[in-house]
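step 4 of 6: structure.
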Amino acid sequence: MVKSKSFILGTILTPLLIILFFGIIYVTQKKNMEKVREYHYIDETAQVIPLLESRLPATMKMIPWNGSKEEAITALRQKEIKNLLFFPGDLFDEYSFEYYSETISDSQRISLIENVISRIIQVRKFSDRGLSEEEINALLASAKARTFEVTKEEGAKKKSAEVSFAIAYLLVFLIYMSVLSWAPQMLRSTIEDKSNRVAEVLVSHVKPSGIMAGKLSGTAAAGVFQYLIWAVMAFLGIVLLKQAVPGAQIAIKALLGSLHPSLFIFFILYFLMGFLVFALIFGIIGAMFSNMQDAQNAMTPAILVCVLPMIFLMGVSQDPSSSFSVGISLVPFLSSIMLMRIGISEVPASQIALSMGLLLVTIAIEIWLAGRIYRIGLLSYGKKPTWKELVSWVKNG
Amino acid sequence: MLLQLERVNKYYGSFHAVKDLSFSLDEGKVYGILGRNGAGKTTTLRMIMEIYYPEQGEIKRFFKNNEVSYLPEERGLYPKMTVAETIDFFGQVKGMNKKEIKAGTDEWLDHFDLGEWKEKKVEALSKGMQQKVQFIITAMNTPRFLILDEPFSGLDPLNIQLFKDEIVRLMRRGTTVLFSTHIMEHAENICNHVIIIDKGTKVVDGEMSRIKEEYGKMNIFIRYSGDGRFLRNGMEESVDDYGTYAEVVLKKREDYPGYLRSVAEKLDISEFRVDLPSLKSIFLEAVGAKGDENEK
């Protein structure tokens, strides 16, 4: 598998394509934001526009409309103008203005105008009450949180909440993606052995449990190998970025400051165990069926369980120590949530030990079950086994 | 002795697939295990290979795992692998080292006239060529014991003969061969010893020559000119007279010299041949007889 063109191309091209994908989005957004947009306006207050223009970027150009609002709307309909801002005379009392456009999906710019207008009205109100500019700025200053992670060993350590969350999310996402990419390979290769009628030839020389172990270790090794290549590519990318982009050094320092070596050790452990948990399930499903079409329906519940951690992530990140977060992170099939908790909070060693213990027990049970089902299923062709037959496979395997 | 089965029984649920089966194999011979479809041949071979296990009885294997090679009835190859990769892969599965595999690959491929297909993918080969590759990967380690389940199925007559020649060649090099077939003629010329199974029960077990002596009737082929009525003199069980030749089955085997003398006096005989009974006729007779016994 690792010598195949598809593996090599996929390994090298995937990160490049991801970078290209996000790069295109970034460049497109940047170009979009740099594009000059014209906003025709009617300012009944005769005060707002100078204040608004000074606070908006140069790409948002304000142009006065000298007719009525109805005429402006007609011009809009006839595509003579693209955007119209109407500031009524009671703007400072009602906090409300109107925006007309051929498209109102540009929420970013609308939001920007709203924020600026809000600020203008607030300053005006405070100014009317006799406050000076300094006093107004002090009153309207935004609070910013400086975040510190407090651990038993290190005490309080300054850490970026956003970066911590991003790293933990990334690691969980990597596990989710890896398991979803590699675990079904067990199913595919088992069905391949059956559909190509190679299974009995193999079984005559290697015990079914040996075949299964070989497939597991080979698939896991291919996955780890792929990650090693990606890690090297990421390292080279960081080195190049540091040299090519002046501001990148600070961002990279913040990123590295949020990383702890133990996080990577846990990542490897949870990746391997998470992979085993699902790979064994997929191997069992593969042994039960003779072709991919029949196996697809049985795969669906397993894939849904695989996806569950991604759904719970946001909730867990907001309160990683809650009973709910602790509870679901201990479920072996959702073990990547424990990794998220480790990445963003200090998790008691007892919980980590319990999580790993439960994972190992689950894997042991699955190995026992898989060995029995594999033994008989590998040589069964044709119709899908009933639940009764499956139970007898487990009893007699 | 290489293998001994003692009163082996195998069940699939309530279905009794193999009943009290006992036989033994000695080294250096070709054994045929014959029977109809569903007789229990494949089940027996799988039990010998420890793919299945009997519910009762014992199988004594006097050989190691790496001394036996098995070609199952349900056999296939990985279509995207090349012939060379396939031989390499299965060679390693069988415990051969790279050097041994490399040394044997070209020799076997040339022997089966597949040399130019070495780097081609298996899916590019015809069915017959694929079966040759399957035979190669089964026999390439020159095993002490070779088990083949329906090795001739799907082959054309030329390839059937090729495989038969290979089996004999391996036997002469010391390999004991056990193969199963439901087509009796395949076993006719190469087996030293036959075991016939019907409905899970052994009905015949013995050296080919002895069985042919013991079972079945002798067929006499006579090419003649004259009055065909003289073919009938009371000694025959049946006469198929085709005008210029006839096939006669006598009631008693030992009557054939007397029958020949009697017929030679009355007819002008240009060809006379005594054929030993075929395995097919032996099978039909044995199964018929055992069937009656079982019903009693």
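step 5 of 6: annotate
 - The mean pLDDT of chain A is 82.
 - Chain A touches chain B through 14 residues (CB under 8 Å).
step 6 of 6: archive
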